[in-house]
Amino acid sequence: MSQDLYQQAINTARALSIEAIEAANSGHPGLPLGAAPTLFELYFNHLQHNPLNPEWLNRDRFIMSAGHGSALLYSVLHLLGYQISGTDLKQFRQLGSNTPGHPEYGNTPGVEMTTGPLGQGLATAVGMAMAEAHLAARYNRPGFPVIDHYTYALTGDGDLMEGISYEASSLAGHFGLGKLIVLYDDNRITIDGSTDITFTEDISARYQSCGWQVLTVDDGEDTAAIKLALETARSNTAQPSLIAVRTIIGNFSPLAGDAKSHGAPLGSAAAESTLLQLGFPAERAAFSVSSEVKKFMQERQNILAQIEDDWQKLYRAWKSAFPDLAAEFENNLAGNLPTDLFPEKIDSLSESQPTRVHSGRVLNFLNRKLPNLIGGSADLASSNNLVLEGDGSFCRATPEGKNIHFGVREHAMGAIVNGLILHGGLRS
Ligand SMILES: Cc1ncc(C[n+]2csc(CCOP(=O)(O)OP(=O)(O)O)c2C)c(N)n1
Known about the structure:
Layout: H1 3-24, H2 30-46, E1 61-64, H3 70-79, H4 86-90, H5 120-139, E2 151-156, H6 157-161, H7 163-175, E3 180-186, E4 189-190, E5 193-194, H8 203-209, E6 213-217, H9 223-235, E7 241-246, H10 268-277, H11 291-321, H12 323-334, H13 355-369, E8 375-377, H14 381-384, E9 393-394, E10 403-405, H15 410-423
Parallel strand pairs: 1-2, 2-3, 3-7, 6-7, 8-10, 9-10
Antiparallel strand pairs: 4-5
The chain binds thiamine diphosphate.
């Protein structure tokens, strides 16, 4: 792989982001300029996905928890050949475009969930990683790892300050979700300035105490170090990993390191000087991608398509070896419901019983009809009759369990359930 072309591609992602923000005259240039090498390294060298089929079932999931960094996500997806055109990038933040100010699920190919409210993305990613662990335990068979993918999220200081991210991270560590990898854009800047004024705890110690593997990259421009950290994270499947990447917000711009680069366009003069710093001459056409970078990206796209092809062969072999299992799984994926799901009467319910008894009976009736039902309670399962009888508990040793004990973590529970559903194949 040519390092020059690789760096040029990263800088192209930066340039496209800056141009989109300038064209919209609004947006967040700081994160794209600082975190481009991190996100690009992930998407280019690690993420198992197929830009030609964003819905591929066994793709790695990626959540842009720091949703304000959307311009960078769109630029990287564009370079990799997702259905986001140069014209779409020019329409950044415009009504009706597929490049809204913050990523929106269902609006943009490659966007796995709507983000913007900080912390939610990370917590939802925990749900996706739980879905993967659960489905893998139930549907994989020896020699047939049909469900076998990682879940990644990109977070910033704001995400890690939000309480929901602590709740979800605590649970992820407890469950040992080893295929969850969180990248932390550790630029120590938020809107109001340095994190010195608000956020001085030891994040590494916090995550370690929650049972995570914590890795650090001292220089966010060092893609070799980011690569190594991602490989180390993936090889530890017993613990979730946090990779803190030390970056400089607004890097290469006149506002490098300054909170002012967080959420306002650089302005045309500063944008021009940033592009020059990144190696783009003033005569380069806005939103253009050099033919060398296009070819470089195309080569990667071909490899990614092949990765899905190989998986499709595995899936077909699994399906013919285990037809009943595959039929159940595909039925769940399609969201089909049994015809006898709504009988006129369930067991021996009577009006004199408390509603929580009714709820428990209905839930268990549904559970017998719906093999993909999963869920739980925030420490109130036995009180609220939320136990799925005959099914075990989801935990590190038995991820096939359908009863999830969320502990007293209601806010994370909501986001995690969204993640279970967004993953596909489950109901909650
Ligand atoms: C729940 C929630 N609260 C507040 C905001 C508004 N907001 C957006 S970005 C941001 C600062 C985030 O700082 P950081 O994560 O460090 O991002 P960076 O400045 O590095 O881009 C805030 C307060 C939000 N999007 N979501």
